[in-house]
Amino acid sequence: MEEKMSLCLLLPILESNNSQLTGLLSELELLAENGILHKQGINVDPVFVSRMRALHTNLQAQINTATRPFTLAVVGEFKAGKSTLLNALLGLHGEARLPTGVPPSTAKSIIISYRDEGMPSARIKWQDGTEEDTEWVRARNLIDHIWLEKHPEDMSTSERISDVTYFLKDPILTRLCLNDLPGPGAKNIRDTEVAYDKMKQADAILWCIGEVPTDTDVSFLNALSETSQKVIPIINIREDIPNRILRNDNEIKDIRDTVLKDFRQYFSSEFTEPLMVSAKMIEYERAKETPDEIMYEKYGFTGMLKVIQGFQQQAIDPEQSHRIRRIKGVSINLIEKLVSTSSLLEQDLKKELIKLGAARGSNEDRIIEICNITDLLRSEIRTLAKNTATELCRIVAGHAKAFVGDVLQVSNLPDLYAALTKSRTTMEKMLQERFEKEYLLLDKKPNWLDSLCNNFAEEVRAVIIPEWRAFWSRLSDEEIQRIELAHPGLTFNSLPDSLIKAMIDVVMRVVSILGIAGVLAAVPGGQIIDAVGVVGVIILSLIKDPLESSRRRAINSVELQTDSLSYDIRDNLLNAGMEGNSVIANKIRDIVLLDIDITDKAKTTLSDLTNHVSMYVENAREHIEALKGKK
After folding, report:
1. Where in 522-612 does DSSP place strands (E)?
2. Helical pair 321-407 and 46-64, crossing angle rounded to 10 deg
3. What backbone phi and psi angles, to 5 degrees, belong to 512?
4. pLDDT tens digit string along 591-607?
5. CA–CA separation, 97 and 86 (whole Å)
């Protein structure tokens, strides 16, 4: 059994729901801004978010209506005579009139409220939520299609208007306000939706009927089905005032019969017949200095005033039963839609969580693959380094042998004898400089060592590129998508630019082997100095070539030392080649590791969001039960 509801019980439930929903929507908007989910190719469906935001706005609007004046909405199709009816009811003439015949494409909601002292005659609410106090004439012109046709420069301003409030000092408005809504069927679907939403925020509905009701009338009446609002049907008998031509009686009967047959279920219980009024004739009569009361009765003005007076009494009803019933009915419908939408969002988020888990596993597999490729490349680069080191040592050893042979000659004994007066260090330096300059020829650029280093760099590059290109080609479409989101513009074809720089670094590192070449240059110098120690014996000897054995020993020593140093050179080349490879390997590893990091963050964020959505759905269902009076 339903528990009797009051605003004191109703509003806390709705405010609790809206507060939770506000937090959830803020979280969704924040996630959209920080891009954590977007970088993983996960986008919260904007349709869900947009729908939830619209429902949230409508629910808040229902809460806001709890404390506003009793509101009577006037609805009906385009040219049914709604504005004319209100002009007649309020006795508005000249520039004070509401614009009539406004087409659906330019129509705006007009709220007519009581004007206290010091208040403006009109207030414009813009679509961005801001408000502007102004004169009624200006506000009226901005929503009057006749004015806008003559002043097209005002059209852009008119399009920014959400609604207009018209303040009048009229006794009818002391306890209620009127809301002239644009007719359904506007070109802009959103305008029709806004009209429906504002109907649901009204405490009662005046349905102005100018023709036989259509499917459009059915649709907006169905939109009120969950609100239990009072609907008062008013058939507006339109007439041609100048010629005093009344509408055909049979035509009026057809409208009445259709309304009673097809729409009686929407009427308030106290109305068994639609009100019959002639808004044009009432307006015409009210413009007279002395209106005819009999004409008022004839054209339905008296009956319409009684309806208004009845609503004024409802407006001061302390229990506000009609308002509570409307807010409760609309709110239940809105929260049920929120539960449905949020549940669909929750399902989508759970699917994305599964995808994130799979993506992380894929990334871990890629890390292992990167390590395996690096090990493979190390083996291949080691072979290249060994070959290059062997060739380098062969060249240096050849020059060293020639140098030893040339220096350790009997014809060169004076120079060698003179060297006895110099220190070993000085002599080694002198010989090293001579070896580098005259035999290795390293002071010229480019030289044989530059060429050797560049060849090595190109060979390393030729080994590295195919392996990593093949790795990249094995990435799935989902992996490529995530990489492109995290690293906009990054493709494998953009990596060789980094690789070329790495290869240049390799060349520079290999060039540093010049230091090793300097060590090699000292080798023959050392052997020559050791040979000079027997110069005294050489001078006294009758042997034809006294330096032959020393020369042979020096050359053998050079060969041994260059072979020994080839291992150091190979290791230096290997390190240089692997450093070049690391530029790509580390770049790709960083991408995948970053992807893992982003995946973990996205998974945590998405999991929290999913829990929050789930929690909201559970609480919203409890709110629905509470509103329905169930424990």
Report:
1. none
2. 150
3. -65, -15
4. 776 667 767 777 787 88
5. 9
